[in-house]
Amino acid sequence: MTASRASETAWRVNNWPVLAKIDTRLNFDKEDHCEFMYYKRHDMSNTRFENGTDLRKYVRDEIITTAVWKMDSKAQRIGNDGALTLVEAMEERMARMEKELADQKKKTAEQAEELADQKKRTVDQAEELADQKKRTADQVKELADQKKKVAGRNRLWWKFRVSELERIIKKTHNAARFERNEIVHGADVLNDYQALEYADRPDNEAQFKTASEGFKKAYGLQLGSFSYDKLSKAPEGVIDIISLRGNVTFLDWFSNHKEEAGVIAKQCDLAVRKWLKSIKTNGVPYPEDAVKADYKRVKELYDSVRSQEV
């Protein structure tokens, strides 16, 4: 029986990986007992020992074979080559899998970060595109406003030229001639600003100085207090108010209405100051409704004087 058992054990050991694991940290109890577990081909042995000496004796007497046994002190394992090699291979595979998993997690995190950056870039590009569309819309509106202003100035000039052509054939009414003179000799702040820029030359200092004083007297504006670009972008009503203010000075017939001319000039200056304040502080633009209301008030005063001269 004994020989048969030893032979059977030896056969199992020699033909199948055998591994015994000693886990002193987990399996020793308070009485310094330990458990020894090893695997055979078809069953598992689990035996409790009082101490390490009994364990070594059991290994020697119970499962001693011709196989070479080895002790892995770090992992607290003993076994034959087949068992230890198998475990080492499994551990290496697990280590590779853990590394691959860690690498995959890192790659996933990097991809997530890249995706977040891409989303941010997309949002930034969308905002930039929206800003570009707004700037384009503003430029289109500004161009339309400029064309409208130019067309308005052209209409005044065309009106004068039509009256001149008409005068060749027939004698015009005094009212038409009065209106023509108002156009020809009246204020034109945009052209006057450009004319002064043209006159501002080193060889023309005297004329430029005198003309600049005339600009200030006519329009109530200091030439260097704002740019032509700012003036050209002013609301149409503001340009009209400045022109009415200039007419008070340019047109001789206002000399008969000095008191009314002074009131008109003050009302114009008040409205223009509102506009200047809005462009200097980059604050709330001069509201269109306010511009229209101010122009209407000044125009009524202007027309009341004009009607007395026509």
Strand fraction equals 5-15%
Q: From the alpha-carbon coordinates, what is the Rg to the nearest angstrom? A: 52 Å
Topology pattern, helix = H, strand = E:
HEHEEHEEHHHHHHHH
| Secondary-structure class | alpha+beta
Return the average pLDDT rounded to an integer: 72
Question: What do you see in this structure?
Answer:
With 310 residues, this protein is of the alpha+beta class. Among the domains are: 2-67, no CATH class; 187-310, no CATH class. Helices cover 70% and strands 7% of the residues. It contains 11 helices and 5 strands, in the order H-E-H-E-E-H-E-E-H-H-H-H-H-H-H-H. The chain has a 5-stranded antiparallel beta sheet with strand order 3-2-1-5-4. A hairpin with a 4-residue loop joins strand 4 (69-72) and strand 5 (77-80). The chain is rod-shaped, with a radius of gyration of 52 Å. Residues 99-124 are annotated as: Disordered.
Task: Please describe the topology of this protein.
Layout: H1 2-15, E1 19-21, H2 24-27, E2 34-39, E3 44-49, H3 52-62, E4 69-72, E5 77-80, H4 81-169, H5 174-185, H6 189-199, H7 205-219, H8 228-232, H9 236-250, H10 258-280, H11 288-306
Antiparallel strand pairs: 1-2, 1-5, 2-3, 4-5
Helix pairs in contact: 4-5, 6-7, 9-10, 9-11, 10-11
Region (Disordered): 99-124
Index terms:
single chain, 310 residues, alpha+beta, five-stranded antiparallel sheet, 11 helices, 70% helix, 7% strand, rod-shaped
Concise synopsis of the structure shown:
By secondary structure, the protein is α+β, with helices and mostly antiparallel strands.
